[in-house]
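Subject: for your reference before the review

Hello V.,

The reviewers asked for a structural picture of the protein, and I figured it would be easier to keep everything in one thread rather than splitting it across files. Below is the amino acid sequence we used in the manuscript, unchanged from the supplementary table.
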Amino acid sequence: MISYSFGKNWMSYLKSMPQKAVDDALADIEGMLGRDAVRGKRIIDIGSGSGIHSLAFHKLGAKSIA
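And here is what came back from the structure prediction:
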């Protein structure tokens, strides 16, 4: 069986992610939803990207992210 250790791989990826990319993701979400729309909310991030928007939702105060 092949196993993929997503958490370990993603933590490694985060170390190389430029701060500008995180700032841009935060700005994207704030621009679409407003500054405080995420705080305390449960978020489902359906996508196949890097997970940068999940990180941005976390930084914006989401209650949980799935």
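For the response letter, the relevant points are probably these. Residues 18-65 form one domain. The first helix runs from residue 6 to 16.

Happy to draft the paragraph if you're swamped.

O.
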